[in-house]
Design a protein that fits this description.
Largest sheet of chain B: 6 strands, mixed
CATH superfamily of the largest domain in chain B: DD-peptidase/beta-lactamase superfamily
Oligomer: heterodimer
Structural class of chain A: mainly alpha
Distance between the termini of chain B: 128 Å
Number of helices of chain A: 16
Low-confidence stretches of chain B: 611-621
CATH topology of the largest domain in chain B: Beta-lactamase
Number of domains of chain A: 2
Shape of chain A: globular
Radius of gyration of chain B: 33 Å
Helix content of chain A: 55-70%
Helix content of chain B: 25-40%
Distance between the termini of chain A: 12 Å
Number of domains of chain B: 2
CATH architecture of the largest domain in chain B: 3-Layer(aba) Sandwich
Mean pLDDT of chain A: 86
Shape of chain B: elongated
Strand content of chain A: under 5%
Strand order of the largest sheet of chain A: 1-2
Number of strands of chain B: 18
Chain lengths: ~425, ~625
């Protein structure tokens, strides 16, 4: 039902989302300026400094957003698998073609600027996932389809982890669980996953012997309450066995982990003595910076902990520390509320889509943003493990800003055409 | 699909839940838990202490007694040391690697710790400091702290002035103002007037980055405090008189105290042997302290003026006379016999040959032991008290009102109380009710268990000179140029003794004047200045008697009262008298008319003569 006169490309755009986006991007830029503030280069547009570079990233991101709004909305459905394949190839190629930067093999370099293809894999995967799941013949409950879905998510994850060794970028793909859940993934899987996570944690915290005894007694009690036939007996026994082997497996995996990974887990679980100068340093410094901000913060550019480099990575993964220190509880709560509002807005928008593709894509955007938010802020306040992923729209970095912009604006574009066709 | 779309609520719920959890967590660490703020301060702030200039000390004529010289301590905070090039550092500071290792060990071991700053190298010279300061930035963890050292241009009054030293651990625990390594007054008026002299430390809050580089002052110095310099003290000491007295007292063991009776100001307070106060400054103190403490005969570290207790001897006879007259058991015309001793007890206490019997003035002039034993007995056996105990208690109360057996309350640090034996004490020694006047008869002549410090001795003379009252003897007359500082209020309170009748004093003073005019001090007249004096010997059970002399001058409106005691020097008129006389002349006239006497006193050596010569034990083969 296309209108004859093509309307303005801004027609039907969800301005609330765009507005929140702009506020976050500008706030991020200001905080990057504060985090790496340098009296010798006090001009925020000085491109020799990170805040000057970020300005360039923001301008180009806005241009990208504009381009996305121009591109026909059908482009994404039509070329979904092509886009996915192309970026997958780029990610496979980067360890071999890209230049190594600080021991990382995930970058393409163009002069002063670098591009991380793994960042763009997020929206590519999201498109592919939306395309696959929106097929009307597809029922996620089918084992075959579940398998393909997991493949779409799992292959990028394994490539990024395996070839590029970027744990943070890889683990983000777990976020698509939310999309799958919305699209009909059995609650049982999620519950099982949830129980598995609890088992993992318990396995690391409690002596395995006690855990085994606990599981076995739980199974025995279960048998007292259910109908005792062969099938049930088999199921309970299987569950018990799986649980026990998971416990054992977790311990074994943990034992074979590399020291720095072990330590991250230890820090999070509060296990053993954490040396605040070594493995516990980052989180401790992050907490000090945020905690010292107080209710109203120390004032813009007045933070000592971030500005004077006590907090590591204070412009990228730990950018939230600057917010916490200089803007206090008020500022940090504001950022969280803003991010949560954006995510909820996207969910609301997704639910109003007529086309499953748009809806599924929207949920993917919300899932990725939510995952980033949870992990990034969680690690600075000691509630999540330290995984190096950026705070959406906030952290310094072109690839992540571009990737989030593309991710979001494709959805804004799709949303602006929600009334027109049923894809 | 409807059922599935219900799942949006669960998803939204999870998102909102996480948001709430994070906001509550932030509220906890940012608003409720204060520990992070403290951690941040500890990391990002460096508190630079600005040490105030310690107050100077002047004498009564505004001549400088104590001033300051800058010194610099090299401090270390081992925790902050990073990438130290040891060789480079050793060259800069001028130490060997072994010394460096030893010092670092000391800095990290208890009572120091890697997290605590401690002194690495004490008191660098200004020159060493200058070369160090330029290059020290390359060695994080090391920095220089400036301090003040005391200097004494006149090299006098060591005991009175006292010295400053590092605060001990007990001090820092008791008084949070001090940190370990801070300097404070340890003795003398440095200790008594510590709070006035020290001023107030200033604090500058500097921000530092993770590499410990200074990044400017916090909030442009909003929370910084300036150091407030210590207040200068004006001492009551007359520097010239003090210097002269120390010269006269050289090579003698004893003490002289001179007081202005009209104000209680101490004009001079000498403990001999003394030492150059400059020896106790800086790095050499420990060594010099050790050397001085090894002198077991002179004991130069022992502040005799306020810490030594001697029998008051003849000086007390003056008080005995006052008490006798006051109690009405004695008149100026009362005569008592003397038979080379006190006849009722078979000639004990003993006395020296003189005409007998004589009246009060004669007895004071000749310092008759027998006479004052009679007086003591008549006071203690006074019928109006019906009871020896009551009479004794009265006698003791009067003595105490003359500041005997009780601290004078002066501002000299560490003062001994002295002793006037109590009833309880004698009850314990002799048994309750089994002692009487004749048992303790030698109290009457200031012997037995009686003990008095040279300061009390001089104060006693001041009381007689004033005819019954005194101001608490003190050594500081103005703080920060202000003579009305509240710390000095207690020295403006006039204390009356229990004997206030000036007629009584006149009788005693008459006797003291007689002693100068034609008595035991006859050879010590000062031309144009009539004065009162009393010679004496204090019996010393351990050796030769102590030479005692008390005097005040002039007779009318006395300006100076002197009490002097020289150990093992025999008669009062031999050593103690001449020195007191010379001091009075110096103070009142500004010049000396008896250079012969002066020469004899300065050259007189009573220490090294008294020292037994080492016996040759080597046998010839």
């Amino acid at each position: 039902m296309r209108q004859k006169n093509a309307p303005s490309i801004f027609h039907n755009i969800d301005w609330i989302t765009v507005l929140i986006y702009l506020v976050l991007v500008v706030a991020g830029w200001m905080n990057i300026y504060a985090a790496v503030y340098n009296e010798e280069h006090y001009i925020i547009t000085d491109t020799s400094q990170k805040y000057g570079k970020q300005m360039i990233w923001i301008i180009t991101a806005l241009m990208l957003a504009f381009i996305i709004l121009i591109i026909d909305e059908n482009f994404y459905t039509a070329f979904a698998y092509f886009i996915f394949g192309a970026f997958l190839l780029a990610n496979i190629a980067v360890p071999f073609l890209g230049r190594e930067i600080k021991g990382s093999r995930s970058w393409f370099r163009f002069g002063d600027f670098g591009i991380q293809p793994a960042e763009f894999m997020k929206f590519a995967t999201n498109i592919a996932l939306a395309k696959f799941l929106s097929n009307q013949n597809i029922k996620i409950a089918d084992y075959k389809n579940t398998f393909i879905t997991l493949l779409l998510i799992g292959v990028p994850l394994l490539i990024i982890k395996g070839l590029q060794d970027e744990t943070g970028l890889a683990i983000v793909f777990v976020a698509f669980i939310f999309t799958l859940y919305r699209e009909g993934l059995s609650v049982n899987y999620l519950l099982l996953g949830f129980l598995a996570i609890i088992l993992f944690i318990l396995a690391l915290l409690i002596n395995n012997i006690y855990l085994f005894i606990f599981i076995i007694s739980l199974c025995t009690i279960a048998l007292l309450f259910i109908k005792r036939n062969r099938k049930n007996l088999f199921i309970v026994a299987a569950i018990g066995l799986v649980a026990c082997s998971m416990v054992k497996g977790t311990s074994t995996v943990y034992e074979h982990m590399e020291p720095h990974q072990k330590v991250r887990i230890d820090v999070l679980l509060g296990r053993g003595t954490v040396d605040l100068k070594k493995e516990g340093y980052n989180v401790n410094q992050a907490k000090i910076a945020i905690g010292s901000g107080g209710f109203l913060g120390k004032g813009y550019l007045e933070g000592t902990q971030t500005k004077y480099d006590f907090v590591p990575e204070q412009d990228t993964d730990f950018i939230f520390c600057t917010v916490g220190e200089e803007w206090g509880f008020v500022g940090s709560a504001f950022v969280i509320i803003l991010q949560i509002t954006l995510i909820l807005r996207i969910i609301f928008m997704s639910e109003r889509q007529r086309s499953p593709f748009s809806r599924i894509y929207g949920y993917g955007v919300a899932s990725v943003l939510f995952f980033h938010l949870t992990i990034n802020i969680g690690m600075t306040i000691g509630l999540a493990p330290v995984i190096g992923i950026p705070l959406p729209f906030f952290s310094y970095g072109g690839s992540s800003l571009w990737s989030f912009t593309i991710l979001l604006f494709i959805f804004i574009k799709l949303d602006s055409h929600r009334l027109q066709i049923l894809r | 699909m409807n059922q599935l779309s219900e799942r949006k609520y669960i998803i939204a719920g999870v998102i909102i839940l996480i948001g709430l959890i994070y906001i509550f967590r932030l509220f906890y660490i940012q608003v409720i838990d204060d520990s992070y703020k403290l951690d941040a301060r500890n990391q990002a702030f460096r508190y630079n202490t600005e040490f105030p200039v310690r107050g100077y000390i002047y004498d009564r004529n505004n001549k400088l007694l104590v001033y300051n010289e800058a010194a610099y301590d090299l401090m270390v905070l081992p925790k902050k040391i990073k990438n130290l090039d040891t060789m480079d550092f050793c060259n800069l500071v001028g130490i060997t690697k072994d010394v460096f290792i030893r010092k670092m060990k000391k800095a990290v071991q208890a009572p120091n710790s890697p997290r605590k700053q401690s002194i690495f190298e004490k008191q660098l010279s200004p020159k060493e400091y200058a070369s160090l300061q330029e290059r020290l930035y390359r060695f994080p963890g090391f920095y220089v702290q400036s301090r003040t050292l005391r200097k004494y241009p006149k090299r006098i009054a060591a005991h009175m002035l006292g010295y400053i030293g590092e605060a001990s651990k007990e001090t820092t625990e008791k008084d949070p103002y001090y940190n370990e390594g801070d300097y404070l007054g340890i003795s003398g008026i440095e200790k008594t007037y510590e709070k006035a002299l020290r001023g107030k430390k200033g604090m500058h809050i500097m921000m530092v980055d993770v590499h410990n580089r200074e990044k400017g002052s916090y909030m442009n110095g909003l929370y910084d405090t300036m150091a407030i310099p210590g207040k200068p003290l004006t001492s009551t000491i007359d520097g010239d008189l003090q210097e002269y007295a120390e010269l006269l007292m050289q090579n003698k063991i004893g003490s002289v105290v001179a007081i202005d009776p009209s104000t209680g100001e101490i004009l001079s307070i000498v403990t001999s042997p003394t030492y150059d106060p400059n020896l106790f400054v800086g790095r050499a103190r420990n060594k010099n302290y050790g050397l001085l403490s090894q002198d077991s005969i002179g004991k130069p570290l022992f502040n005799r003026s306020t810490m030594a207790s001697y029998p008051p001897g003849s000086t007390f006879k003056l008080i005995m006379a006052l008490i006798g007259l006051h109690e009405g058991v004695l008149t100026p015309n009362t005569r008592y016999p003397c038979a080379r001793g006190y006849p009722p007890l078979g000639g004990r206490p003993k006395c020296h040959p003189h005409p007998s019997p004589q009246d009060l003035v004669g007895a004071i002039g000749t310092s008759c032991n027998s006479y004052f034993s009679f007086v003591f007995k008549s006071v203690i056996d006074d019928k109006k008290y019906h009871d020896t105990y009551k009479a004794y208690a009265n006698w003791r109360d009067i003595a105490t009102s003359f500041c005997l057996g009780t601290k004078t309350g002066s501002d000299l640090a560490n003062e001994l109380r002295g002793n006037v034996p109590s009833i309880k004490y004698y009850d314990k020694v002799f048994g309750k009710g089994s002692w009487k006047a004749s048992t303790v008869i030698s109290l009457g002549i200031g012997q037995a268990e009686m003990g008095i410090t040279p300061l009390q001795n001089a104060n006693l003379v001041a009381i007689i000179a004033n005819k019954g009252w005194y101001y608490t003897p003190h050594i500081v007359k103005a703080i920060g140029g202000n003579p009305n500082d509240t710390l000095l209020d207690r020295f403006k309170v006039k204390h009356n003794t229990m004997i206030t009748d000036t007629n009584i004093y006149n009788e005693v003073i008459k006797g003291m004047a007689r002693a100068v005019e034609g008595g035991t001090a006859g050879a010590l007249k000062i031309e144009g200045i009539p004065y009162g004096a009393k010679t004496g010997t204090a019996q010393n059970p351990h050796g030769k008697d102590h030479s005692v002399f008390v005097c005040f001058a002039p007779l009318e409106n006395p300006k100076i009262a002197v009490g002097i005691l020289i150990e093992n020097a025999g008669f009062g008129s031999t050593w103690a008298g001449p020195i007191a006389r010379l001091m009075m002349e110096k103070y009142l006239k500004g010049k000396i008319t008896r250079p012969d006497l002066e020469k004899r006193m300065i050259e007189g050596d009573l220490i090294h003569k008294a020292k037994p010569k080492p016996v040759e034990t080597k046998k010839r083969p």
